[in-house]
Amino acid sequence: LTHTNSVPDRSNLIWRRLSLFVLASALCSCPCRAEDSAMENIVTEKKAEESHRQDSADLLVFILLLTLTILTIWLFKHRRFRFLHETGLAMIYGLLVGVVLRYAIHVPSDMNNITLSCNVNASPATLLVNVSGKFYEYTLKGEISGSEVNDIQDNEMLRKVTFDPEVFFNILLPPIIFHAGYSLKRRHFFRNLGSILAYAFVGTVVSCFIIGLLMYGCVMLMKQIGHLGGDFFFTDCLFFGSIVSATDPVTVLAIFNELQVDADLYALLFGESVLNDAVAVVLSSSIIAYQPEGDNTHTFEAMAMLKSFGIFLGVFSGSFALGVATGVVTFTKLRDFPLLETALFFLMSWSTFLLAEACGFTGVVAVLFCGMTQAHYTFNNLSPESQERTKQLFELLNFLAENFIFSYMGLTLFTFKNHVFNPIFIVGAFLAVFLGRAANIYPLSFLLNLGRKHKISPNFQHMMMFAGLRGAMTFALSIRDTATYARQMMFSTTLLVVFFTVWICGGGTTQMLSCQKIRVGVDTDQENFVSVFGLSTKQESAWFFRIWYNFDHNYLKPLLTHSGPPLTATFPACCGPLARCLTSPQAYENEEQLKDSDSDLILNDSDITLTYGDITVSTDATGAHTSGMPVGRVAVNSDEALDRELAFGDHELVIRGTRLVLPMDDSEPPLPLDSRRHRHKNETMS
Amino acid sequence: LTHTNSVPDRSNLIWRRLSLFVLASALCSCPCRAEDSAMENIVTEKKAEESHRQDSADLLVFILLLTLTILTIWLFKHRRFRFLHETGLAMIYGLLVGVVLRYAIHVPSDMNNITLSCNVNASPATLLVNVSGKFYEYTLKGEISGSEVNDIQDNEMLRKVTFDPEVFFNILLPPIIFHAGYSLKRRHFFRNLGSILAYAFVGTVVSCFIIGLLMYGCVMLMKQIGHLGGDFFFTDCLFFGSIVSATDPVTVLAIFNELQVDADLYALLFGESVLNDAVAVVLSSSIIAYQPEGDNTHTFEAMAMLKSFGIFLGVFSGSFALGVATGVVTFTKLRDFPLLETALFFLMSWSTFLLAEACGFTGVVAVLFCGMTQAHYTFNNLSPESQERTKQLFELLNFLAENFIFSYMGLTLFTFKNHVFNPIFIVGAFLAVFLGRAANIYPLSFLLNLGRKHKISPNFQHMMMFAGLRGAMTFALSIRDTATYARQMMFSTTLLVVFFTVWICGGGTTQMLSCQKIRVGVDTDQENFVSVFGLSTKQESAWFFRIWYNFDHNYLKPLLTHSGPPLTATFPACCGPLARCLTSPQAYENEEQLKDSDSDLILNDSDITLTYGDITVSTDATGAHTSGMPVGRVAVNSDEALDRELAFGDHELVIRGTRLVLPMDDSEPPLPLDSRRHRHKNETMS
């Protein structure tokens, strides 16, 4: 049994490229005047320039890969081909390029690059090397296994296209997660908050332990029949459980959007996927932190277990608090300058990530909650142009990062040099993932249905079971550390799980929807008309939710945004002066207009904008028409107000339907309803 | 005379931070099972985590600096305070933080980080170190001077806030330059193309040599009186001349926009500033490439000179061709999917940079011409939403990069450790910069006025002289290499030149404008009415410009965009079938509408959108109204058509003025002219 502590994946393209920039300039910049070294310098300069060019060319390959993906996506969308999502496509292209790089191209590497070995007694981060009187600074890149030392020369090409795993976690993942938080459909999300939290927290932990236990059984079996090539501890199994429990919101939901699937199912799946990413990342870091004292680091110990649990709670709540705090702090008043506003918004989101990392929390989790808070409060303070700009900016960043991750996933299947594909482990993992998902969805749905008025029907449950794809987060967590045998086996298996779920489950979503007889093409207008006439909206008004909702609506919103009722109306009479100075002047104007923004939804272009009239309407007719609707807002604290508010978009639609017969006001007349609806349809298609 | 080949500036925050990510994960990922090393590992892990946190905190400082800048900019704009531009402000904040970092904070650095020295005989790019049986990989970071070796320990803090100079050149500069190219005001730019090219090419070269010669005289003087602490060759003087000849378009033009200064002056200054950046960067690299054969590398040699000239021409034209080619290639047909379109556009721009670098050309120059080509052709093919999105995206990137560079400039005045401030050199440099600018503007203007119908008046010349600020490009070129004494002196002096010009010239622009009696607040409507009635537009219709213009309009535009006349109308009759298959179907429709896009201008928000009616109008009234104007387009090749076209926006405005009395069509009625103009005014203010 050999420990192949190899870190070829530590070498990476970007830093390598950039460090070569540095190298190149460092070499250019010491034009030693001594005549004997001048010639030598020119040679090294040439070499550095050469490798800079090579690196630019390598990066160009990635960009062309992305370009190709975009063009093919366009073709697919154009032809309404739904069996393969863009992420699946990106993976296929990545696979192809990986095959080419692995088998077709063989670049003879420059032997001069890597030659020296010197014996010292420690491995500091920075090393000073004395070369015949001159000092050179070196930085540590990572450990290399003995077997790799000779190998390094051959793999120059593969090493170059291998990114640092931390790039995924610290650069590519944050925009994806932030965008997910920023684009949560808020009305349906809050309606189903209880269920979503249950699935995300309880469900993910259950799934993690079920998978961990099953995999431990599998590993035991492998050890019995001698199929195991290295150590594999129970903590490793749990770690595997935690990383494959993170489901990906991207693929299925894109199809859901296109087909206009039931909004509650959408909210359940999206909310669960987004939140369980956060749970999984904190869970996995708590599992890593499990370190019992004493000699054997892999025995069970209650104290260490408790400590891990404490870390989970601490890191999660810390990241949560930080994200929410930064989201709330971004209270912009820069409405007149959209560029400044957008820049500020972007910088605040990024600083959330850095702040969380600096405090020792998890940046990704903080960014998620920051996005949600900003969508809930800050978004309402932004000028309409900034709302559009921030939405589009994060959409673009998300799109690029996502496609990059998925195509890189395909690439690593061939370029990663330390794959450990173990058939028994793979079969066991697929089974465990399936059972883990089942143990998450079905029992929880049963329990939740006991409390829900609007039950989660069996076909919804089957759909949620089927739609548990694994994606970017699972990949980023598993590639983060591939040093030990156990981790390498996990990484290889995880790749296969991701491929399978994205291609098979992602591709089969349309079939599954029709098979489960789930309504597609739901005309959300009609659904809303129904709810106005008294059917739904009360489905999940649990008491804690109502309390929070009222608190949010009456105190937080007026305090943090320009919308909602003025604080003077909601504060007790004794706090009048305080309330008056805290309320923004705009809130008084808004009181008349009922411009509450609970239906201001931040949606993807591909989302069903039709349902949520507020943004559209206020853009179209400058809000004047809404003044004819003095409902609600008197009984601020009552449940009725909440219901009315949740159904706000619905009222809106009714009014919009009847407004055409009203006498026109002198402002710009609205577009005919048909043409407007047509425009929305077009947007939905894109 | 000692050679202080120091490279403390090579160390950098980002790569250091990221390499520490790598380091951290590398250390986390080799949990050597041997019990004796477990403890050691945990300690190193802790250390790595600690420094990761520290790095996040450092980066956070930069982000907060930017945030502070944005908030202050907002305050200034809000209060209409014009004496200090945002870039000047960013520099001041940078200076303050630099002072604090230098004098107030002293972080005792971890002595364990940098300890080892081992004697080897070469300095390879990658070093393998054998530490008691384990191999570690190290990468070369740069050379360190003997005197710096002990110093390294103390400067940990300053080293951390010092970025790699190549970051500026390869990451921060490209978006700025691209944005400049993408937002050139095209109509006035093309009208003044000849003059702009003369200023940019002839002027920059003249300025470079004048400054170089003056500085050589200054250096000779210093050598005589013993004030020179190191070598300073004539090539160094020329290099200095080339880097300080690059003028910055940002600061003055922002003020020009706000005050609505004469559009021709604007076009001259902006065009010159943008293009001379490109000239300066290629010029400086050609000067570095000047390497005479033989022993003394600093004698004059005709062959080497010719070779440098050849490099200049080769690199410039290569970068130009590449940029234009990629710009033309981006021929999108993805109009229905703005997100895909924007992503594609962004990736193509980036790949231009990489492609140019991979081919050995200058990426920055390629990106500039790519931006200009995309603005001229590709922009017309984009969907309206993508036009908006790309504009906003690059505007944001430009804004962030620019403010970052300027605040970093302020920072380096205190954190850079190898400043060489030589009073004589500094005085000489200021004088040389002044005279170099004068030798560029006045003689050239005189010569150009001989050929121009619409003369460049003396007060315009004085204004151009005054507005020659130095900015981001000068800084990036000078910080790129600070290894020798000469380069360090240049860098320090350049910093002062930039500070002076940005604060004094930038801040005094308003005063200078009123002092030179240059019309501000030009109502571009009125100006256009005048030109319609026959006054201007012919001012610079040199024959080569007319030929190119006609070729572009009749063949390139129809071929590459959906606008312009169909090729069937412009090709000779014999090429009919070919023309038919090359013309896009939309071009035929457009023929009726006269939807030529020479007045489709890509402007900053702060630009004077009023002049260029096309975008606005086609958005407002869906183009239907323009069909009542069947002028031109029959005599396609005549000069009259060209003039009419250049004045297209003007016709447009006349028609817009009269359209209000026409019977309304059944589409959405246009806003009243007053309210529309009011809206524009608001945009212009922002």
TrEMBL record, chains A, B:
Ranges that cross the membrane: 58-76, 88-105, 167-184, 196-222, 311-331, 343-372, 420-439, 460-479, 485-509
Record keywords: Antiport, Cell membrane, Endosome, Ion transport, Membrane, Signal, Sodium, Sodium transport, Transmembrane, Transmembrane helix, Transport
GO biological process, one term: regulation of intracellular pH
Keyword Phosphoprotein in record: no
Biased composition (Basic residues): 676-686
Cell compartment(s), UniProt: Cell membrane; Recycling endosome membrane
A single GO molecular function term of this UniProt record: sodium:proton antiporter activity
Record family assignment: Belongs to the monovalent cation:proton antiporter 1 (CPA1) transporter (TC 2.A.36) family.
Protein name: Sodium/hydrogen exchanger
Native species: Cyprinus carpio (Common carp)
